[in-house]
Design a protein that fits this description.
Elements: H1 2-7, E1 13-14, E2 18-19, H2 20-26, E3 43-48, H3 52-65, E4 69-74, H4 79-83, H5 94-107, E5 112-117, H6 124-140, E6 144-148, H7 163-171, E7 176-180, H8 186-196, E8 200-201, H9 205-209, H10 213-222, H11 232-250, H12 252-266, H13 273-281, H14 286-296
Parallel strand pairs: 1-3, 2-3, 3-4, 4-5, 5-6, 6-7, 7-8
């Protein structure tokens, strides 16, 4: 997924968040070191945990594997994660979060960044804890932050609030600030940059169903005419690339399972979306994929623009 997004203009990628203890348990396994692709740089290792010593050790191992940046996740809102005192839970525990940042910063030589939400909830106390953690991050030498414009309690419900992003950049002009939340079109991304003055945007859910959003963002940012939506054949070619890389990495069975989730999301870009989605739901082998690909992703038909504007091309997706 990272390699295919980069081919469309993504300039910095992060691995999906991994538990620190799993990194240490797997470092002597047969797949240790197989995390990166030569085309995928610069790339950040995104770690999550609840023990500062283990986090430091895991961070050092990820650096040794070749990651260019170490990113600490203080934003995950999943209940199981919160229940085990990880991710967004640590926004309510400033002392632990600060100790964790210090441990990671001391363990690696690559740049360190953090990912945060607005707080555990919308109370004044939660906001104070947010600033306490970020103040400490800057003092410790953390070079960048991704701020998702929702609280942990919100998960992905409601609309993201971007005001905090503007305030973070105002308080810390030397800090690299990325924004996240409700970025589903190129217009969304440019509007966030213009309204908040931050340095960049982090596109998460919006890239799963529409990886061409990176290409469209760059065109809009440069003042160029928006590129036409990809043809069905172009969509198929990108999925071919992703599927082939997944097979090389994981083998055909696991790769097929992985392609289900991406295909299901991208089926919304197909005129026969319901039929294509059902085929991806059942996808089990490369042969099944090739048959579906030949039938549904071989034409030069372009997907109709969604939203009524030539520079808005997206589809609605559910929480991931």
């Amino acid at each position: 997924m990272r390699v295919t997004c980069r081919s469309l203009g993504a300039c910095l990628t992060r691995n999906e968040v991994v538990l620190d203890k799993f990194v240490l348990e797997a470092r002597k396994g047969s797949r240790s070191g197989r995390h990166l692709h030569e085309e995928d740089h610069p790339v950040a290792a995104q770690l999550m945990g609840n023990d500062m010593e283990i986090m430091g050790q895991a961070a050092a191992h990820m650096e040794a594997l070749g990651y260019d940046i170490l990113d600490i996740n203080f934003g995950c809102p999943v209940k199981k994660v919160l229940g085990r005192c990880r991710g967004g839970f640590l926004l309510g525990e400033p002392e632990t979060a600060i100790a964790m940042m210090r441990s990671v910063r001391n363990a690696v030589s690559v740049p360190v960044t953090v990912k945060m939400r607005l707080g555990t909830d919308e109370t004044e106390e939660a906001e104070e804890r947010f600033w306490t953690i970020l103040d400490a991050a800057v003092r410790l030498g953390v070079v960048g932050v991704v701020v998702h414009g929702r609280t942990v309690k919100q998960r992905y419900e409601g609309f993201a609030k971007w005001d905090r992003l503007r305030e973070v950049k105002r308080r810390y002009p030397a800090l690299v600030v990325f924004g996240s939340g409700d970025l589903f079109t190129a217009n969304d991304c440019l509007r966030m940059l213009e309204e908040t003055g931050i340095d960049g945007v982090t596109i998460a859910r919006g890239a799963i169903s529409n990886p061409w959003i990176f290409r469209d963002c760059l065109a809009l940012w440069r003042g160029e005419a928006p590129p036409p939506p990809p043809t069905l054949a172009e969509q198929g070619a990108l999925m071919d690339r992703q599927y082939d890389l997944a097979i090389q990495q994981y083998g055909p069975e696991k790769a097929s399972r992985q392609m289900r989730k991406f295909g299901i999301k991208r089926a919304g870009l197909h005129p026969a979306g319901a039929e294509v989605r059902e085929l991806f739901v059942k996808l089990s082998t490369p042969a099944e994929y090739r048959e579906m690909r030949e039938r549904y992703y071989s034409s030069d038909e372009r997907v109709a623009v969604v939203g009524g504007s030539a520079d808005v091309w997206s589809c609605e997706i559910s929480e991931c």
